[in-house]
Amino acid sequence: MGNYSHGVGTPSLTSYDRLRVRSQLTNLQRSLAEEVLPPASIASSELQLSVLVIAFAILSPLELWSLKSIGDVTEWDIDRFSEPMQNVTDKTKYFPYPQWGQISDPATVLGVHGRVLVWYLPGIMPLARVEHLNKIHLPLKDSLVKCSKTGGQSKRRFGHRHVPQADGNEMFGHGRLTNSPATFQQAHTRLEDWVYQSSSPRKGVVRQWLQDISYAEEFWNKIAEVVLPDLAQVGKDAISVKGDWVVSQPLSPIPWPSIYLGIDVIVNQETPPHQDQVSAPSLLDLVVSLGTHDSHFHISDIGAKFDYKPGTMIYLAGKVLTHSVPKWGKGEKIALAHYMEDAVHNRFGLPRPPFTQQKHILGKFLQT
To answer: Do 305 and 282 form a contact (C-beta atoms < 8 A)?
Structure first.
């Protein structure tokens, strides 16, 4: 792990801090394994678990900016990395390529200035909570879309294909379901274009799913307020003003539960390497892993493969970092991909949030 003396202004930490948090985390995980959790609310022990996982992650930074500059290689600045480079097909010539390999403990990925590009939070939900959430997704099986209804670029961006060895007898089905209370119609993203609710929330089974999962989404909103406070505020602002912009139609009577305007339910699908099309660099996506699988989440730009077992949450700068979930071995995978649409936020008159800096989050934990 890196040190904290490279100009970001955070206190010096020792391995003792991580060992202390790891010990507390291990003890709590053992007790949670025996605890019966309420099916539709978050227990106080789960709140304690989330605090410890977040604390371990912020104490375990993977620092792109601590990689030394050699020749034409620059420090890893997410702003510069996201900019087009003329006549350059391989950015690794100019940005260090760490090749970190497999990662299984909670961690953060930091760019230059200590800005957080990835929050990796494995085990932030206990298995019993995952099992409760899995049951909520069973009724969605017949509503999942197997492939894009349109061709061309839209079909390529759909990008999710069925696990080859599956035979159609999965418990949770396969495909995806896109849900949004405020989105542009395809190819209409100008400031004068109308914003609509997606069609999925008008279905009874989807409305029930939104209602059933709302307690978990509210919990995840609280986590975002801790790890990405500026993003969380922009998300809350978007939810509060969306009613002024969405075209009148029979809207879902269920309140939208997330600070993210888009939630895709992706079931038993591989995800090819891609960058997100609709967000912005500082609008970090959230993916939540459910199901029973043993897959891995790859971020190729930093040479990392993260364990993606059920109960994992990952926030990442998906607009810039190429990520994928290739074929896995056992079990069924449910992924909830949360994202914010930059064009919709712009339509609402909302600014892009700044990146969260590690020193600000670390300061909160050192004060407690």
So the answer is: no
Q: What is the pLDDT of residue 201?
A: 85
Give the C-alpha distances (Å, rounded to integers) separating 181 from 220, 334, 350: 18, 21, 17
DSSP H helical ranges for 138-287: 152-158, 204-227, 229-241
> 3-class DSSP state for residue 343?
helix
Q: The tokens of 49 are what? A: 């678990």
Q: 338 forms bridges with which residues in the sheet? A: 263, 286
Max Cα distance, the chain (Å): 60
Radius of gyration of the chain (CA): 20
Q: Strand runs (DSSP E) across 192-331, as ranges?
A: 195-196, 262-267, 269-274, 285-291, 296-299, 304-307, 313-316, 323-325
Which 3 state secondary structure label does DSSP give 359?
helix
Q: How far apart are CA 184 and CA 166, in angstroms?
A: 34
CA distance 120 to 323: 13
DSSP label of 275: -
The Cα–Cα gap between 24 and 41 comes to 23
Q: How far is C-alpha 257 from the chain's CA centre?
A: 16
Token pair 């990146």 is found at: 355
Q: Which helix (H) or strand (E) holds 222?
A: helix 204-227
Mean pLDDT by 10 residues, the chain (368 residues): 34 73 96 95 97 94 60 59 71 73 93 89 98 97 76 47 55 92 68 77 92 98 97 95 68 84 94 91 97 95 93 96 93 96 90 92 68
Q: b/e for 254-284, b at 16 or more Cβ within 10 A?
A: bebbbbbbbbbbbbbbbbeeeebebbbbbbb
Cβ count within 10 A of residue 198 = 19
**pLDDT reported for residue 198:** 82
